[in-house]
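Protein modeling request. Please complete all fields; requests missing the sequence field cannot be processed.
Requester role: graduate student
Desired output: 3D structure, token encoding
Chains: 1
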Amino acid sequence: ITETTTLYVFAGNPDDPACSADNPFTITINLSPLLVINNPNPVCAPESIDLTHEDITDGSDANLIFTYWEDRDASVELTNPGEITISGIYYIHAKAESGCFVIAEVEVTIYPAPDAPELAAIQPDCKVQTGVIEVTAPLGEDYSYSIDGENFRTETTFTGLAPGEYTVTVMGENECTAETNITIEEIPDLPLLVIN
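Delivered output (196 residues):
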């Protein structure tokens, strides 16, 4: 039996065919709930992913009760489904009002952020009245650098900088970033030369 069906139980006396009775009963087959999983977009550490957000299960049946697990057997419950910080496969258990349930996997991807840039500065002096910032780490073809958070380049040295505060951003793989602040100091006062 694969769908809700009404059956009849018949009881009779073989010695007296007129003595008989029947009683109907219904077998109810509830369908499994529809659970749709939309894997969340990858993020960069230290950001986290909220598996309880409605977008994750958008398209599923209404009125489902969701619980979140580390394993397909739903034996190890996730303690922080709203703040996942480790990439991996997790599991969502969806239970309908009928008591029927399904379990489906959801994939979380969290890219590591690059190390914060290490910097060296050449400060303005009487001869050269602009500063220089050089990124000394991390280095490599996978990295690019910016002092305005928008225009990135592979060169590690920024020259001709006016005095002020600068935020140097390094971008690694998957466009994840890290920042370090540095100051280019004011131009020193020129010595006063008096000629009589």
